[in-house]
Amino acid sequence: MRKVTLIRGDGIGPEIAEATRRCIDATGVKIAWDVQEAGVDVMETEGTPMPERTLQSVRDNKVALKAPITTPVGTGFRSVNVYLRQTLNLYACVRPCKSYVGVRSRYQDIDLVLVRENTEDLYAGVEFEKGKPATAELIRTINRLSTDKKIRTGEETTGVSIKPISVEGTRRIVTYAFEYARKYGRKKVTSVHKANIMKHTDGLFLEVSREVAKGYPDIEFEDRIVDNMCMQLVQKPELYDVIVTENLFGDILSDLCAGLVGGLGMAPGANIGDEGAVFEATHGSAPKYKGQNKVNPVALILSGMLMLRYLGETDAADRLEKAVADVIAEGKDVTYDMKPDRDDPTAVGTSQMADAIIARLK
Ligand code: NAD
User: Fold this and answer.
1) Residues whose CB falls within 8 Å of the CB of residue 122, separated by 6 or more in sequence, listed in order
2) Residues of the chain where predicted confidence (pLDDT) is lower than 50
3) Could you tell me if residue 14 is left (phi over 0), alpha (psi between -120 and 50 degrees) or otherwise beta?
4) Single pTM value for the model
């Protein structure tokens, strides 16, 4: 029996985690769930949002299904989600965005895959607080990275975030995107950057993207500046196939792409490294819906479907995806966000939508 860590998260996390676990079990794949806690609830009792045993469980099992975890805005602890990806070196965040028949959207036939670099960029966590004298680390970093302005010891800084983009990290993620394209028969990879402005970081990302692309003559390559990419995705999403980009742009474009296929309730994802993988939805913990049995479980259920594929359970993954697609196409047992009118009283709850998917599976 395959052991998988299940991180229940916080906010809406526990509800959608339970719905997903039931759907995966209903496929008949035998999984021994190692249930672990992380997030604001466990922070209150244990003083840390990521207990060591949770991390160890993911290290041991090498595969995890993770529900969302809240990150305090502006203050408080750093993102547990980012910490997990960095600590386990889950460098590739893969987010397929696909239209399912019956979903409320202005767009049909969207079939994009966003590949986001997960460990570098402004998410590296190298930040310096406004008004504090520049630390030796900041001085070293800025003076190494910046070409002209040198900072001296004792000088006060403004708020500073450092954006590391390495040749190695870029080569790794762009290669991943091309290998993914080849494996899944996709035709084109688009590298997204802001190399016109950030010449030493995004310039490097573009240069390395071009270099990697030369090794894949069978796959078309192009690049886009990120602001133009946003407009193009809204106007002509059918022109794009696999998109590879840096961490922050990938985060933002993920939500944009989710909007094309019916919203965050429909956007699954996977964080993949050489040593393991953590599967999670694009969306967050939506705290205002906590405990209401209201939100759409599909993004996490489809993340579970991606996990089944990763585990080699292709038939179970196909059946689960079809069951989800059938329930959505029928449009009856779906949550509020999938109804034409969001106040539709016939919308069902999280667990009832999972029940309908399980009934289809059987
Ligand atoms: P969010 O994704 O939690 O929610 C934004 C809005 O999207 C919700 O108010 C809701 O209207 C909609 N939504 C999200 N998930 C939905 C679902 N399953 N079904 C239906 N509608 C859904 O984003 P936010 O409010 O910006 O962030 C809330 C918290 O989640 C923050 O603390 C943030 O840091 C965290 N977060 C965590 C992760 C993660 O765990 N990987 C990812 C993103 C955000």
Assistant:
1) 161, 162, 163, 247, 248
2) none
3) alpha
4) 0.92
Q: Using one digit for the tens of pLDDT, what is the confidence trace for 310-346?
A: 999 999 999 999 999 999 999 999 999 999 888 889 9
Q: Are strands 127-128 and 160-161 parallel, antiparallel or unpaired?
A: antiparallel
Q: Is the CB of 357 under 6 A from ligand 1?
A: no
Residue 289 tokens, joined = 């819906």
Mapped to the 3 state alphabet, what secondary structure does 288-336 carry? Answer: HHCCCCCCCCHHHHHHHHHHHHHCCCHHHHHHHHHHHHHHHHHCCCCCH
Of the candidates 282, 296, 244, 273, the residue with the CA atom closest to the CA atom of residue 81: 282
* Nearest one of 79, 58, 74, 93 to 10, comparing CA atoms: 79
Catalytic annotation, pick one of 83, 100, 123, 336? 123
Helix axes 314-330, 350-361, angle to 10 degrees: 120
**Structure-token pair, residue 249:** 């742009």
Of 264, 279, 338, 342, the one to substitute when testing ligand 1's pocket (max ligand atoms within 8 A of C-beta) is 264
Tokens read off for 65: 């299904």
Give me the helix-helix angle, 298-310 and 314-330, nearest 10°.
160
Per-residue model confidence (pLDDT) at position 91 = 96
Q: Where are the beta strands (DSSP E) in 202-313?
A: 220-225, 242-245, 270-272, 277-279
Instruction: Show the domains of the chain with their CATH numbers.
Output: 1-96+266-362 (3.40.718.10), 106-111+165-260 (3.40.50.2300), 124-163 (no CATH)
CA distance 135 to 155: 9
Name, in order, each residue with C-beta under 8 angstroms of 334's C-beta and a sequence gap of 6 or more. Answer: 296, 327, 328, 347, 348, 353
| 227 in catalytic set | yes
